[in-house]
Specification:
Number of domains: 2
Helix content: 25-40%
CATH class of the largest domain: Alpha Beta
Distance between the termini: 13 Å
CATH architecture of the largest domain: 3-Layer(aba) Sandwich
CATH topology of the largest domain: Rossmann fold
Family: Belongs to the ABC transporter superfamily.
Protein name: ATP-binding cassette domain-containing protein
Structural class: alpha/beta
Strand content: 15-25%
Bound molecules: adenosine-5'-triphosphate
Number of helices: 10
Keywords: ATP-binding, Nucleotide-binding, Transport
GO molecular function: ATP binding
Pfam families: ABC_tran
Length: about 325
């Protein structure tokens, strides 16, 4: 379990983190989302004891990271693949990590296998692609069988197959009880991987909710409708007071309506519909609404949802 309580960090007059609090429990993938400069990296650095907070505390497994004698056995981290020593081979890198954390070296081959690098064990890291370095970083993070994983942008540099692999890998780890915290900009990926999302903006927690609840609370459901008479249908719907947008693929997205009402309106005006489906919102829409960015509706007010960082947690 990761616990962050009321963290504040100032750099001169600028406040990087302003009262951030949340937890990432065992058996769950928690996503940490936020725009550039929101305070994610500062929060992660505080968690890893790399930056001292002005206020608050950050605990891994109930203790500050800096008090862990062999941190790799408690928390695995994947921060920057580029910090790997490029002259070493994959195996040498893991051997060095194992030795410095008193981890039996027998585990190395198993970890290389798990991340799909068994054939590259003796390849120098300098010959690795970014995706391979991410996989090696993950092997290192898993070396001590940690119950907590802290990953910064884990899908960076991975191809489509690698992204799917990483997603199921992290989901499997959580299913076996690991607490996984993923800091990322990749909204679609976070939506597919995380059970729970913490959104940070301007150093504060804007939302701390299960992924599905965050989406339903901060997006408006819409109906996607297609018809050969798109222009006429659009005019009819707008006349009836609905907000209508052109959807990808040439259909119409109608906010705030149900399929029955749209079907009835089309019938009344003798417009034949080709498709009529209820669509739920996306994490991206919810996120834009929360951070108040252009494209986001900001229809639900600006109050932080989780002032103490704990509301709405299970
Ligand atoms: N060492 C530092 N000195 C001064 N200001 C800093 C320092 N580190 C971070 N900041 C500022 O604190 C704020 C939060 O930065 P942080 O890197 O934590 O955000 P972030 O959410 O990780 O953004 P990104 O996704 O771009 O990495 C930013 O305004 C940043 O400029």
């Amino acid at each position: 379990m990761i616990e962050v309580e009321d963290l504040v960090k100032r750099y001169g007059t600028a406040t990087a983190v302003d009262g951030v609090g949340f937890s990432a429990p065992a058996g769950t993938v928690t996503g940490l989302l936020g725009p550039n400069g929101a305070g994610k990296t500062t929060t992660v650095k505080i968690l890893l004891g790399l930056v001292r907070p002005d206020r608050g505390r950050a605990l891994v497994d109930g203790r500050p990271y800096t008090s862990l004698a062999r941190p790799l056995r408690i928390v695995g981290t994947l921060l920057e693949a580029d910090s790997l020593h490029r002259g070493r081979t994959a195996r040498q890198h893991l051997l060095w990590l194992a030795r410095s954390n008193r981890i039996p070296p027998e585990r190395i081959d198993r970890r290389l296998e798990q991340v799909g690098l068994a054939d590259q064990a003796r390849t120098r890291i300098s010959a690795f692609s970014l995706g391979m370095r991410q996989r090696l970083g993950l092997a290192g993070a898993l070396l001590g069988d940690p119950k907590i994983l802290l990953l910064d942008e884990p899908v960076n540099g991975l191809d489509a197959e690698g992204i799917v692999w990483m997603r199921s890998f992290l989901r499997d780890l959580a299913a076996r009880g690991t607490a996984v915290l993923v800091s990322s900009h990749h909204m679609t990926e976070v939506a597919r991987t995380a059970d729970h999302v913490v959104v940070i903006g301007s150093g504060r927690v804007l939302a701390d909710l299960p992924t599905g609840e965050l989406i339903s609370r901060y997006t408006q459901p819409k109906v996607r409708v297609t018809s050969a008479e798109r222009e006429r249908l659009s005019a009819v719907l707008e006349d009836a007071g609905y907000a209508v947008r052109t959807s990808p693929g040439g259909g119409l997205d109608v906010a705030g309506a149900g399929t029955a009402e749209i079907g009835a309106l089309a019938g009344e005006h003798r417009i034949v519909l080709e498709g009529l489906t209820q669509e739920s919102g996306s994490l991206e829409e919810a996120y834009l609404d929360l951070i108040g960015a252009p494209g986001g509706g900001r229809a639900h007010g600006t109050e932080p949802l989780a002032a103490d960082g704990r509301r709405n947690r299970r």
